[in-house]
Amino acid sequence: MVKKIGLLTLMLFIMGSVDNIRNLPATAIFGSDLIFFLVASAIFFLIPCALLCAELAMMNPEESGVYAWTKRAFGPQMAMLSIWLQWINTMIWFPTILSFIAAVALHLIAPELAKNPYVLISIIVSVFWLLTIVNLQGVRISSRFAAICSTFGMVIPMIMIILLGLTWILRGHPLAIQISTHHLIPNFSENNSWISLTAIMTSFLGIELTAVHLKDIKQPQKTFPRAMLLATIFIVLTMLAGAFAIAIVIPANQLSLIDGVMESFSYYLNTYHLTGWVPMIGVMILIGSVGSLVNWMVSPAKGLLQAAEDGFIPHYLQRVNKAGVPQRLLIVQALIVTLVCSAFLFMPSVNASYWLLTDLSTQLYMLMYVILFFVALALGLRTLREKSLVFVPAGKVGLWLFALFGVIGSCVTLIVGFVPPKVLDLGGVLHYELIFAAGMILMILPGVLIAIYLKAKHTLLEHRHHSDSDHS
Hints:
Layout: H1 7-18, H2 24-28, H3 33-59, H4 66-74, H5 76-109, H6 117-135, H7 142-170, H8 181-184, H9 191-202, H10 220-247, H11 260-271, H12 278-305, H13 315-318, H14 327-340, H15 350-384, H16 395-416, H17 429-471
């Protein structure tokens, strides 16, 4: 970077990576339950993750990110598995955000095509390859580009949907959900209540991504934790109010996970006789969604390259172009995303495909977070032997508490991820669970095999070294 990233740019970069208006329908579909689970998710996941990642980043600003942290705590094999889970999760996640982009674009042109899987796949693949070509030109201005996109395409539309929802309530319009103390406490015996946790957790993933860019941040010891704090507050408030604004006007059984945002805006604006604003808002949301892809396309690939020095990445994929971009890795990403998009053809509806990919992506990422919370605990305890922690309050007690909260939140999400929501047509529970389990195995297996291979390789090299030393 010609100039270092400042506080505002970094905060918007973090918010653009995590907070996305496309997540609102998947949260709003669970009605009044979303309030309880969103607050619980913030306490048991987002806040611990933000605090612990800020602490980890400051322990060694020169080598930051998931791979570097895990390697210092548990060695290169576990580090490879963690960065693999972060990277492969994005391969599943990309089709969901791209399907949202396609649905918004189609809503402005031909809304009836938004539920056609063949049209969606064509747009998804075309846009992703186009963005891959753009990213190959370099990432010098990526943070600023993402910040601009976040401002106009995420922050402004998010505030608008919240204000529209507030106006709706103040004017006494009928609500699509029940708002009372009784309805705000979920019925824990219902599977649907627990499943809402998956959708909400998905809205909080990725807050650790920017740590890999720590060298490019101005005064990282001050800027990074402040940006994390401000971004976390904004994310929680906007996700809660935004999802609630959609839930009060669109009944759960009528809400499209892909097209729900534009449906909600259209509903509000048609009621207030402001239909002419719909295309403008659609364009803004498209800008924000495209901007959110920037960090997700480059950061996990950059983290994967950190594993190159330990021999995890084939030399063929390690090559970077003149702009410093891992071009072959980005091309491999595009090929995998093209293949993953076929999921839209194997589920009975676009909504079902969207949920399957969202759920699968979340579970893969949650496995990485379980590792990350144990990493934070291990490195935090080592740091406490020499000095006090900077950001985690209450010393050892606070460290154990936040790490425990994070593990509990992640594990609960992993368990309920295998249960499909009743409000969606997923082709039967067994059909869904078989596809889901197969997807999990196929995505995790390569990372495990690579880690086992490298461990065996290191053991063999050490054995040869000892044999040569004994011979000498």
